[in-house]
Amino acid sequence: MKYTFQSDECMVITIPLGSLRDAQEGQLMPEKFHCVFKDVYKVFLKGQPKALGAAQLIAGVLVLILGLLLVQHRPLVLIYTMPSVLFVAAGMLTYAAGHSPNMCVAKLSFSLNIVSCFWTLAAVGLCTVDVFSFRFQGVHQEVFSGIKWMIVVLLVIELVVAMVVIYWESKAVCRQHFNILPMVTLKQDV
Fold first, then answer.
1. Residue 141 and residue 18: Cα distance in Å, rounded?
2. What are phi and psi of 66, to 5 degrees?
3. What is the pLDDT along the chain (190 residues), one digit of tens a residue?
4. Which residues pair with 12 in a beta bridge?
5. Given its phi and psi angles, is residue 135 left (phi above 0), alpha (psi -120 to 50 degrees) or beta?
6. Is the dihedral of CA 155, 161, 166, 172 positive or negative?
7. To bridge 91 with a disulfide, which of 16, 49, 57, 181 should be the other Cys (CB 3.0-4.6 Å)?
8. Residues 113 and 75 sit within 8 Å (Cβ to Cβ)
9. Whole-prediction pTM value?
10. CA 78, 156, 100 angle in degrees (round to 5)?
């Protein structure tokens, strides 16, 4: 006979049975038993999603604010700063996914973090090219250059945070089997 399911030991229920010799009627099964549940959501929580979501949110808002400071002098700055709205949204979703075990929110956060990760790679490249190619004329050249370098550093921080969040969310979202039955072990006292 072939088994119809395969246990991955995500949930192990151990029921200690009393001694069969000393058992009276109705005393074989205990009232309490031990259950070990290796929940993937608990693994995701080890990655501190609330803190990572807050870091994403803050970095995204700072990039947006710094981009708005530079837009008066160079409108092209919006190309690599305005899409940080994605990162603000990803930060809010990551925080929400860490706050409640909702698989839909975790999957949406996972998807948005992947998009944000690729966008951040492109934005780091565009911003770095812009720092070296365009020089502001006037007395505030060092200030504008410093702001651009701050944007580059914040974009790199966004990239690192997105990669860490993707790693931990993949532990919760990417599973081989979604309908796995528990492993039940009966232990008899001798």
1. 81
2. -65, -35
3. 454 444 455 555 565 555 445 556 655 555 565 555 556 667 777 778 889 999 999 999 999 998 888 888 777 788 888 888 889 999 999 999 888 777 788 888 889 999 999 998 998 888 888 877 766 666 677 778 888 889 889 999 999 999 999 988 887 777 655 545 555 565 655 5
4. 36, 183
5. beta
6. negative
7. 57
8. no
9. 0.68
10. 95
Please give the backbone phi and psi of residue 183, each rounded to the nearest 5 degrees, phi first: -95, 120
Q: What count of residues does the chain have?
A: 190
DSSP letter at 188? E
CA distance 59 to 62: 5
HEC sequence for 12-69 = EEEEEECCCCCCCCCCCCCCCCEEEECCHHHHHHCCCHHHHHHHHHHHHHHHHHHHHH
Distance CA 96, CA 112 (A): 13
Quote the tokens at residue 56.
Answer: 């994403």
H-helix or E-strand containing 186?
strand 183-188
